[in-house]
Design brief:
Elements lengths: L3 E12 L2 E13 L4 E5 L6 H8 L7 E6 L2 E2 L5 H11 E4 L11 H10 L6 H14 L15 H13 L5 E5 L7 H17 L3 E5 L11 E6 L2 E3 L1
Parallel strand pairs: 3-8, 3-9, 6-7, 7-8
Antiparallel strand pairs: 1-2, 1-4, 4-5, 9-10
Helix pairs in contact: 3-4, 3-5, 5-6
């Protein structure tokens, strides 16, 4: 079963009397252990596609299926649960909570549901931070971490709930080439080790060789 299916997804916005097409009848399938790089110019629809795949935005029409979840008709409450349990997000702006430690920032992904076992959650967070080379930085606040370290904490948070799908938005945009390469290698290694699917949005074509497949998007239209 594919990790993600978009079927004839269209997303439009109204600007006065003008209809703006962000995604134009998009059909896409991502395998259950596939890493897809999505490239395109600014304003091409990359982030819109990512947001629809992760249940942050609803399509104007079309179907969105993640694993065996058809989320197209989900309520806001169902979408919140789906995002927490099935999808891991790594945003361009890392969005760590500044007054929480690296460990607590990773743990928060499990704790938001209110059902987490604190001891097990802490052990899982520490395991992830160790895997990401941050075992000694677990008690540090975001301000005490470098840009690359903060990005790794965000990757750990995205992996916390063992999601079916990882969605990554411009992971290397604020990093130099060396750090960007390290972060991409970490993402790919962690995703492949878990046989998870991922979509990585990037403008940096140097990073596309890490993906199994690259898809171009221009003006809301996909082209392999």
């Amino acid at each position: 079963m594919p990790a993600l299916q978009l079927r004839n997804v269209r997303k439009t916005y109204q600007s006065g009397d003008t209809e703006i097409v962000a995604l134009d009848d998009t059909t896409l399938e991502v395998g259950d252990d596939e890493i897809l790089a999505l490239i395109g110019p600014s304003g091409s629809g990359k982030t819109t596609l990512l947001s629809i795949a992760g249940g942050l935005l609803s399509p104007t029409r079309g179907a969105v299926i993640v694993g065996d979840h058809d989320i197209t008709e989900y309520s806001a409450k169902q979408l919140t649960t789906f995002r927490r349990e099935q999808v891991g997000f790594v945003f361009q702006t890392v969005n760590l909570v500044p007054f929480l430690t690296a460990r607590e920032n990773v743990m928060i992904a499990a704790e938001l549901g209110g059902h987490a076992n604190e001891k097990a959650t802490k052990a899982r967070a520490d395991q992830l931070l160790d895997e990401l080379g941050l075992g000694r930085r677990a008690a540090n606040l975001p301000a005490q971490l470098s840009g690359g370290e903060r990005q790794r904490v965000a990757i750990g948070r995205a992996l916390m709930n063992e999601p079916q799908l990882i969605l990554v938005d411009e992971p290397t945009s604020a990093l130099d080439t060396k750090l960007g390469t390290q972060v991409m290698e970490l993402i790919v290694n962690e995703v492949k080790r878990r046989s998870t699917a991922a979509i990585i949005v990037t403008h940096d074509t140097r990073m596309t060789h890490y993906a199994d497949r690259t898809v171009q998007i221009t003006d809301g239209v996909l082209a392999a």
